[in-house]
Amino acid sequence: MKTLCICLLLFFAMINASGQKRYYFDLSEKVDAHHKIELNETKIFNEADLTFELQSLTLLQSRRGYRVNTIRKVRMSDALIYVSDISNTNLFIYDLQGKAQNKIDISLYDERAWITDFTIHKDTIYIVDNKSLFLFKFTAQGDFLSKELLTFNFEDFMVNTEGLHFICKHETDRRNNTVRINVFDHSLNLLEQYFLTSRKNDSIFRPRFFPGMDDEVLFSVELNNEIFKISNNSVFKFLRVENTKRIHRYTHANGFHFFQVSNANNIHSPLVWTCYIKNDTAENVRFEKFQTDNLSLFLFNGIDCGTHQDKFVSYLHFNSYEFTRSIPDMKWSAEHESIKKDFFQIVDKTNKNQHNVVVLYRIVKK
Questions:
Q1: What are the start-end ranges of the H helices in the chain?
Q2: Which range is the signal sequence, renumbered to this chain (predicted)?
Q3: Going by C-beta distance under 8 Å and a sequence separation of 6 or more, which residues neighbour residue 80?
């Protein structure tokens, strides 16, 4: 009987293993990118074909137990705003008017847990801790659903309709692969694995995902000027930004390539440009610095906050000395006059406990 049980276990293990598809790719440097961007041909803000419009400002209202420290990440759904801060244990949930709705204290579910990242997909919040290897799921309103202990290390994760994607370093495989991407369904059953051989590591090796449109899976393997994409079980070079050393951050959404770049190949290198480039056109806008007098400072943190519908998301701390000092010099163009009243009302309400403001803006034709 014992022998029969062992045989059955081995049989089901073989079925599971055979159901997990594996794909191997060499990320060759010689392959052309689907999109190529020449930074030297982009136009600075005052000369570009595009400009920006501020759409709304939302003050995150404070109350007892809902005081956000320095913001780490902001995400929006059609009904709620989600914010994590430097505490690394709290995820704050607000409605679209900025009123506190709920707070997830992840340490209540495991005292070892930290929020190293989170995302929202449809009606579920996914929180990961890539130190203790936890995956938590909550409803969109913040009610607990489950806690899973992951069995592998990972650098970054993303969630889409297909499932959960984890990207990790994988330098000891017999094929000398450098990156592995695990794809699970939403019940955490392993579906696919991609083993990706990088070119020689002449820059910092740090695999990560980038936000894309719909179900795009965009990623980089090194801190350089290239981004790759998984589509139809194949991998190809999606983007190369010429005349730069490193893409710091990137989003492909709302018909734009949206990125920050620098000319140095290290994590702490200073930014050179922030760019919005329309898909397959010459229309673009480049911000070499964010200034207070033309309100471009509202876009400063936008690169990390993703999009909401057809708008980009950003945030500002309204009680910083540099910001309050700049208020008298702000020049309000005609397209921004509609929220000028809201701006000054928010300024009057800010204090040491509530000063974080979520910003929605669009890139439009002049």
A1: 2-19, 321-326, 340-349
A2: 1-17
A3: 93, 94, 95, 96, 101, 140, 141
Backbone phi, psi, residue 28, to 5°: -70, 140
Positions in the chain whose pLDDT score sits under 50: 1-2, 4-18, 173
For 279-309, the pLDDT digits (tens) are 989 899 999 888 888 899 999 888 778 899 9
- The one-letter amino acid code at 78 reads D
- Choosing among 3.10.580.10, 2.120.10.30, 3.40.50.300, 1.10.287.380, the CATH entry for 33-365 is 2.120.10.30
Using one digit for the tens of pLDDT, what is the confidence trace for 196-251? 887 655 566 789 999 998 889 999 988 889 999 999 999 999 999 998 888 989 99
Question: How far is it, in rounded angstroms, from Cα 269 to Cα 114?
Answer: 27
Q: How much is the pLDDT for 114?
A: 95
Cβ neighbours of residue 71 under 8 Å, at least 6 residues apart? 83, 84, 85, 301, 315, 317, 356
Q: Which of 39, 35, 57 is nearest to 228 (CA)?
A: 35
Domain-by-domain residue ranges, the chain?
Answer: 33-365
| Average pLDDT score, the chain | 87
Give pTM, 2 decimals.
0.89
Amino acid in the structure at residue 144: F
- pLDDT score of 13: 45
Q: Which residues contact 200 (CB under 8 A, 6 or more apart)?
A: none
